[in-house]
């Protein structure tokens, strides 16, 4: 087996990963969402996928989560071939999409209980785990409030807590700060950074905001299904220092 695929310090490894969506109408061209990605994402750090809408960020996260089968190439997550055993990957990760499925008629606590049941979290560890999640999300005072009565920022915090009830090894977050107020956005990032630092959690987050990417250890700049550049925020800043772009608005 290729030595690259045995690199145990990486949570995600891709080789020539390609994702093509076939057009339903034969007269329309197929859509190539990802084009031959070669990526190694290290464990225990916060990694950003940054780019505009349509760059391929969500498609890549869904591939990592085992929701799509790659068209070609290879993808290993936590040392597991996603094509061979997607369920084994899904048992060890958590994925929070842009529209997370909270049950708005249920209270905060009932949502946590439900997701703990779905993920088979043992009863004997739930109390401690719930206390930890409610503390870091600052939802301890709202356990009996229906999720539908929470603010947008608080709903995102609850969604994050629900994805973490199973104590995943890898957390995937798809633009979690979209649509929340600036204060809640700041709080979300503080929570994520705390989890990486204190629990050594590996987190891959997609964002369209460069100021969010600057908070990450490693950044992958995506556009049109390709990786344009990668490196630390400091490295990427140095690459564009002194450059000026002139952009003409559409007519």
Structure description:
This protein is of the alpha/beta class. The protein is about 30% helix and about 25% strand. It folds into two domains: about 1-90 and about 170-245, Rossmann fold; about 100-165, no CATH class. The chain is built from eight helices and eleven strands. It has a six-stranded mixed β-sheet with strand order 7-8-9-4-10-11, with helices on both faces. Strands 1, 2, 3, 5 and 6 form a five-stranded antiparallel β-sheet that branches. Helix 3 (about 110-120) packs parallel to helix 5. The longest helix has 18 residues, at about 180-200. It is globular. The termini are far apart. One of its GO terms (molecular function) is ATP hydrolysis activity. It holds the Pfam family ABC_tran. Keywords: ATP-binding, Nucleotide-binding.
Return residue spans where pLDDT drops below 50 for at least 5 consecutive residues.
1-7
Secondary structure: helix percent: 25-40%
H and E order: EEEEHEEHEHHHEHEHEEH
The major pleated sheet works out as: 6 strands, mixed
User: What spatial form do the alpha-carbon principal axes imply?
Assistant: globular
Strand content: 15-25%
- Radius of gyration based on Cα positions: 19 Å
CATH structural class of the largest domain: Alpha Beta
């Amino acid at each position: 087996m290729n030595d690259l695929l045995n690199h145990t310090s990486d949570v995600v490894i891709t080789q020539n990963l390609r994702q093509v969506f076939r057009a339903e109408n034969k007269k329309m061209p197929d859509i190539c969402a990802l084009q031959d990605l070669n990526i190694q994402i290290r464990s225990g750090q916060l990694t950003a996928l940054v780019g505009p809408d349509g760059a391929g960020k969500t498609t890549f996260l869904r591939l990592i989560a085992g929701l799509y089968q790659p068209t070609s190439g290879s993808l290993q997550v936590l040392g597991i071939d996603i094509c061979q055993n997607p369920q084994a990957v899904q048992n060890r990760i958590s994925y929070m999409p842009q529209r997370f499925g909270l049950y708005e008629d249920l209270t905060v606590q009932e949502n946590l209980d439900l997701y703990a049941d779905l993920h088979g979290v043992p009863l004997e560890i739930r109390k401690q785990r719930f206390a930890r999640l409610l503390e870091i999300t600052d939802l301890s005072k709202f356990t009996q409030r229906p999720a539908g009565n929470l603010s947008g920022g608080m709903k995102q915090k609850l969604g994050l807590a629900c994805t973490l009830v199973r104590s995943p090894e890898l957390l995937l977050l798809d633009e979690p700060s979209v649509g929340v107020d600036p204060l809640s956005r700041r709080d979300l990032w503080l929570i994520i950074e705390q989890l990486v630092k204190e629990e050594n959690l590996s987190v891959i987050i997609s964002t369209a905001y460069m100021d969010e990417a600057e908070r990450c250890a490693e950044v992958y700049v995506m556009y049109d299904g390709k990786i344009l550049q990668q490196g630390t925020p400091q490295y990427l800043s140095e690459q564009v220092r002194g450059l000026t772009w002139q952009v003409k608005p559409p007519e």
